[in-house]
């Protein structure tokens, strides 16, 4: 069973399976360290691997798929993440006279493993894993302030990274959805990333696609799943996650309703054909 606790803005997570897949969208920056095992992060543009001891700063408003794996000796994946919330960063900027920053254009995932001060920072959080209630609101706020200070001392680029408060602007919705339909996130999250309110997102979506987001997403994901299975390279248990379905049973039911055949039957047909 997974061991997870979230105290204020600090998360500890320890997996139990050898292989775990998930998808994520964080509205806030995250600073984390991999304590054991591995986490592989994939976006449409790049990938990033966190192994034991890796420290990474992740940009807010990013979509990515994550694959967690056990370590080389079977140790389960575990990590500590500290979320740098926008309200906290705005308050810090105001208190410290930090002016409005230009839009950050750098990498969405920054490797900070070599930073000894940040390693010492995460070492100071380890005792709270066994006694999470000791990490009260005041301590969490102090730890968050410490992390911000350490990042700002590392390089000037982190001032821009942390204090770029610009929200996603209104973008081409058709291009965006065709590029990101495989991410299993909520409609409000899709709307925010497309630079729209939820009501405007739904209205614009219907004008472009002549259907609802929910119907379009399911149809698009099923079409892509059919293509992947027809290549004979992937199993249904891998495909449903790849295209953005939450569970295998729902995927199988929807697939058979759409195509009159189960994902397993289609995959087997093309496996036999190739043989």
UniProtKB/TrEMBL annotation:
It comes from the Bacteria. SMART domains: HTH_ARAC. Residues 171-269 form the HTH araC/xylS-type domain. PROSITE patterns: HTH_ARAC_FAMILY_2 (PS01124). The keyword Mitochondrion does not apply. InterPro entries: AraC_XylS_family_regulators, ExsA-like_N, Homeodomain-like_sf, HTH_AraC. One of its GO terms (molecular function) is sequence-specific DNA binding. Keywords: DNA-binding, Transcription, Transcription regulation. This is AraC family transcriptional regulator.
